UniProtKB/TrEMBL annotation:
Residues of the Sulfatase-modifying factor enzyme-like domain: 47-327
InterPro entries: CTDL_fold (IPR016187), Sulfatase_Mod_Factor_Kinase (IPR051043), SUMF_dom (IPR005532), SUMF_sf (IPR042095)
GO molecular function, one term: formylglycine-generating oxidase activity
A Pfam family of this chain: FGE-sulfatase
Listed PANTHER family: BLL6746 PROTEIN, SULFATASE MODIFYING FACTOR 1, 2
Name of the protein: Formylglycine-generating enzyme family protein
Amino acid sequence: MSRTLTSLFLSFTLSASPSILNAEDNGQVISPPRLEPLAHFQECADCPEMITIPPGSFMMGATEEEARDQLTIYNSYDATKDSSDGRFRFVPIEEPRHPVEMDIPYAMARTETTQADWMTCVEAGACSHVPDNWILKFAGYAPLGPDHPVVNVSYLDTLEYVAWLNSLVGADVYRLPTEAEWEYAARAGTTTRFPWGDEVTADQANFSREMTESIQGRISGNEVSRPDLVNRGIPVPVDELNAANPWGLRHMPGNVHEITMSCWTRTHLGLPTDSAYLEHARTQDTCEIMVGKGGGFNSAMSALRPANRFRPRWDTRDYVRGFRVIRELQNLPGS
């Protein structure tokens, strides 16, 4: 076992340039008292910058009123035919709203995994897929640079990246977040529709004006114009825009959709703890449809709500989807 990291982690601060651990310290599983909430750290030269997520609990999901706003093209596949009258009824995929205790200490990557992060894994021989770094934009294609989020990777691809990070630190501590961990971190202690309030500006997130106008028009029944919004039509670099939530996590809403390790369910499971959500995710070995979160550059504003859910297949690669990782900060009981 490597020597203790207590002294190193006590020295971590909220500086823009996080400390990097010495190679001899890699592999230590950190216990929560050694990192203050919202501390930034980088465990190795090729590891992502992480932010320690404060402990607590939250209300996961959406109210009935908010969830039913999603009777739109996004969730048209979640309608079922009522046998009594033959009409289709909306299945509220964001309900039941329920309390979740976050009982697994963890840190989350400050940004989405970038093109440069991914290609470092490829060059190390650990990631086998080389994703297309060109993206369809309006009538043509645009290149993505090293600081853009990596896209055109599937859930199965991300497992290679996570395994590589764990090999660098010598411990099985990095993974994708569960749906509960993602939503808790995205909300950042807030209870509004978005981390900044009940609307999002074009400076706070990268999303689609056109889709927002369309969806808001469908919900209101009237034509909607939003000249305050923009259509960028492409992901932006991870440090572009004023996109940090109150905990410093960037582009949780918007930019690219983010894959979680949770298996899709048509409604929330209503589980009481983060560890219960993790246990469910780990026992669904045959799961082929995952839970995605966050919305993207092609999404309406409503899709950026932390409560929103979508369902990517585990083997699908496309230009709107990326991911970010978390790091557990202690072993789970019984592990």
